[in-house]
Task: structure prediction
Amino acid sequence: MSPVFRALSGIFAAIFLFGAAVQWNDPDPLRWIAAYLAGAVVSGAAAFGQLPTAPIAVVFAALGVWAALWAPALADSSLDAMQSFGMSGARQEEEVREAWGLLVLVGWTAVLLVLALRGRGR
Result:
C-alpha cells in the first residue's frame, strides 16, 4: 500500500471524524454519528496499512443501501444547500447535505473495498 494512499486514507478518516462530531446538532444524531464513525474506522485502518475486507464490505453495503434510500433528496436539489454548515430550518437543505455525505462515505468505502478485494487475490 503506497504512502500516498495511506495518507489519503488518514485524511478521509479525519474528515469522517469531523463529520461525526458535527452531527450533534442534527435532529437524529446517533445514526449519522455511527455512519461517519464507521467510515472513519475503516479509513483509519487503511491509513495504518490494513484493509480488512469483511468490515469494509459491511460498511459499504450498509451505507450503500442507506444512500440509495436517500438518493431522491438529490433530485431537483441545489448546491445552495452547501452554502452554510448551519441549520437554516429548511429540511430539504439538510437532506441534500446528508445525501451528499452518504455519497462521499459510499464512494470512499467503495475505493477501500476494491483495493481490499484486489489485495486478497495476491
Notes: The chain has one domain: 3-120. The chain has four helices and no strands. Helices lie at 3-21, 29-47, 53-70, 91-120.
